[in-house]
Amino acid sequence: MISEYLSNNSIEPLLICGDSLEILKTFPDGCINMAMTSPPYWRKREYDVEESIGLEKKHTDYIDNLLNIFRELHRVLTPSGSFWLNIGDSYLNKNLVGIPWRVAIKMCDEQGWILRNSIVWNKVKGSPDNSKDKLRNVHEDLFHFVKSKKYYYDVDMTRKAPLKPKVQNGAVISATGVTGVRYKRQIELSTALTEIQKQNALLELNVILEQIKEGVIADFRMIIKGQQRTTHSDSSKVSGRAKELEQKGFYFLRYHPDGAKLGDVWDIIPEDTQERKLHFAPFPADLCRTPILTTCPHDGVIFDPFCGTGTTMAVAYENGRKSIGVDISQAYLDYAKERIRSDEQGQGVLWDFYQAK
Ligand SMILES: C[S@@+](CC[C@H](N)C(=O)[O-])C[C@H]1O[C@@H](n2cnc3c(N)ncnc32)[C@H](O)[C@@H]1O
User: Fold this and answer.
1) Structural domain of residue 88, as residue ranges?
2) Does 171 lie in the same domain as 147?
3) What average pLDDT does the segment 141-154 reach?
């Protein structure tokens, strides 16, 4: 089934019902470019299938079961592949078990995964919490693992479109409102710079303002000796910037013209789970959009070993990628199937199946 799917050109997702570990064992080595998943929480939710992962009595058994699946996943990923794991924590006898990091550390130590990022998914609202002796939990972890040091990564997909610089009354104003006027005054009035350093600083500042005007860079900051606070070491032996400051009396921080890279804290509101017939916990499409666009090539194949209602598959489809999803529950897969359809032009569309019920 899998080799047939891999060899055809369709981007319709392949949904397979069964136990993830057993299904994965039938996959050939290196056939998946990118995986994204969110396993069931440990002892938090009950899915309608008894063999479901997450019902283990001991957290160590839960972790071992996950690790068995991730070992197979490691085998089926291409050498340039990525695995994004969203995993929640659980309390036991008032103790926050620390499941996400226990899993991540074992994956690195025992299976050779390389952990590239630990992202905090800030759910912004979170669920109600009536306990009187602890804070509300509003975050979950999202880990980005790779199989080897050289892996597929389209960094431009992580950039936030920058604000555009403006020209007002002939003066250039950078994306964040820097005009250079203050820097010019600081240079002219500086007692820390020599006359030569002042001339050079003004000259280079004009060059930078020209670059802003022409769109070569979107924004900049200037660090002038004795004026701005620095975050690097003051020792010119350890910091190149400290050396530049000592020798030239100033330096520039240039912002990338395509915008700054995303940080590792993501504010994403969870899916609204009210008014549903089935109890399930899909992750929001926005949580897997950046992973898919950044680490799955256009002609790549995406895999989700706990695909549930198929969010990963829907976003893969929406972005023209092939995908394979496995879940132990046929009921969830039926929902997933309903969720994805083609419009008349054959373009992928994300269908809000909650409305379609
Ligand atoms: C947190 S949900 C995934 C939700 C999914 N990301 C979505 O958007 O709907 C976890 C899923 O794991 C499935 N599951 C549990 N044990 C499994 C197993 N052994 N093999 C495959 N799927 C399993 C459950 O049925 C459930 O749908």
Assistant:
1) 2-158+261-356
2) no
3) 97
The count of domains in the chain is: 2
**Confidence band of 274 (pLDDT split at 50, 70, 90):** low
pLDDT reported for residue 177: 78
Going from the Cα of 93 to the center of ligand 1, the distance in angstroms, rounded, reads 25
Whether the CB of 338 sits within 6 Å of ligand 1? no
> Which tokens sit at 138?
């509003």
Ligand 1 binding pocket includes 327 (Cβ within 6 Å): yes
One domain, residues 34 and 172:
no
Backbone angles phi, psi at 73, to 5 degrees: -60, -40
pTM for this prediction: 0.82
* 300 close to 279: Cβ distance less than 8 angstroms: no
Pocket residue to mutate for ligand 1, from 27, 52, 61, most atoms within 8 A of Cβ: 52
Token pair recorded at residue 2: 């899998």
What's the pLDDT tens digit per position in 28-38?
A: 999 999 999 99
Token output for 305: 């070993």
